[in-house]
Each structure stands twice: as structure tokens, then as C-alpha cells.
Task: inverse folding
């Protein structure tokens, strides 16, 4: 029962990600795409240090390591 | 004769075209898909590929697409899927009930044991990483 709840919850979140991305890609949509959100985050800098860029690259690398190497 | 700046388009470099980058990503993914979890080879491979992409992304050698200067308030819609995912990931992680109430990565592990699925996951990861580098 709890296992089904977890699977259902993750499935719902994935569907919601797809729905919001689909809404963002519609003609004339005001919702930014996930790529736009990432690009906005990566603009963040502290002085000359691209903190947003380093942070997002680091997060994505960690995600790959977590799923694909361990 | 000078052209107006907005009419000039920088020609993409050969390696920056999909006809080059996609086969390269496919080859890298096929190799990655053969490496088993927890192996030294898999760790070294992901260190090399990820490290290389981070190095390229932090240098200014790859042309980047323009980023939005600010986000509209409707961007908050993204919080809906993020919150749902975060609630379930947090709950499954904190309860640590194993297969009875599994985390997302625990659910993904059996799927990623298959070499083809693993290569597909590698391709998705590398493609998204390449997309981030060019942003």
C-alpha cells in the first residue's frame, strides 16, 4: 500500500513536470520553460564567481553520479 | 560594408551542430551504459565526462543562448511539481522504510540494471548537461 503510494506520488510529480513544460511551450505562453528557469538561475553571480552556474552544474553532476555510478 | 548587429548570425562551429554532438553523446552513452554501478570504471567515467562538461561550461568557448533577465510570477507554477516531488522524496527518505516506501532512486535502481535502459539514462543525463553548458 505504502509502496503504491510512493510510486503514485512520484508518477504524479513527473506528469506535473510534463504538463507545466507543455504549458510553457504553447504559443504565447507566459510560463517560462524549465530551460529558461535553469538559464535564469545560472545568471546568478557573486562578484566574478558564477555561483549559479557552478551550483547547477554541480547538482546535475551529482545527480548523474547518484543514479549512474552508485 | 557593416551589417546591423541584429542581422548578423554567428556560424555554429562544426562540433556544435546536432549532426556532430548527438552521435558523440550516443557513443558516450553506450559506453556509460556498459559500466556497472559501484564500479571504479563507472565512477571514473562519470568524473571524466561530467568534469569535462563542467570545464567546457565554465569557459566561454561555447556560444550560449540568451537567458531571461527576470522571471514572471507565473513561473511559480513550477513549484507545483517540485513540491509534490519534494514531499514524496523527503517522506520516503526520512521514513527509510526500504522497499515498502521507496525513494525515487531506490525505485529507479532495478530499471537501471538493464544495459539499454542505463544507456538511455546516460543519454538523457548527458544531453541535459550539454543543454545546460550551452545556456
Result:
Amino acid at each position: 500500500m505504502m509502496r503504491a503510494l510512493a510510486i503514485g506520488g512520484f508518477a504524479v510529480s513527473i506528469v506535473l513536470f510534463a504538463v507545466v513544460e507543455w504549458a510553457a511551450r504553447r504559443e504565447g505562453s507566459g510560463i517560462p520553460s524549465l530551460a529558461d528557469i535553469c538559464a535564469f538561475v545560472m545568471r546568478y553571480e557573486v562578484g566574478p564567481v558564477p555561483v549559479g552556474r557552478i551550483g547547477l552544474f554541480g547538482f546535475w553532476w551529482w545527480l548523474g553520479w547518484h543514479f549512474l555510478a552508485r | 560594408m557593416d551589417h546591423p548587429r541584429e542581422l548578423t548570425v554567428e556560424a555554429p562551429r562544426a562540433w556544435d551542430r546536432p549532426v556532430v554532438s548527438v552521435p558523440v553523446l550516443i557513443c558516450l552513452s553506450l559506453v556509460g551504459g556498459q559500466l556497472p554501478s559501484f564500479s571504479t570504471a563507472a565512477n571514473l567515467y562519470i568524473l571524466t565526462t561530467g568534469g569535462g562538461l563542467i570545464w567546457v561550461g565554465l569557459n566561454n568557448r561555447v556560444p550560449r543562448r540568451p537567458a531571461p533577465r527576470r522571471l514572471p510570477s507565473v513561473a511559480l507554477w513550477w513549484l507545483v511539481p517540485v513540491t509534490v516531488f519534494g514531499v514524496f522524496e523527503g517522506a520516503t527518505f526520512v521514513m527509510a522504510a526500504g522497499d515498502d516506501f521507496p525513494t525515487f532512486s531506490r525505485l529507479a535502481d532495478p530499471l537501471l540494471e538493464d544495459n539499454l535502459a542505463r544507456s538511455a539514462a546516460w543519454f538523457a543525463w548527458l544531453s541535459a548537461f550539454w543543454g545546460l553548458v550551452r545556456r
User: Anything to note?
Assistant: The two ends of chain B are 31 Å apart (CA to CA).
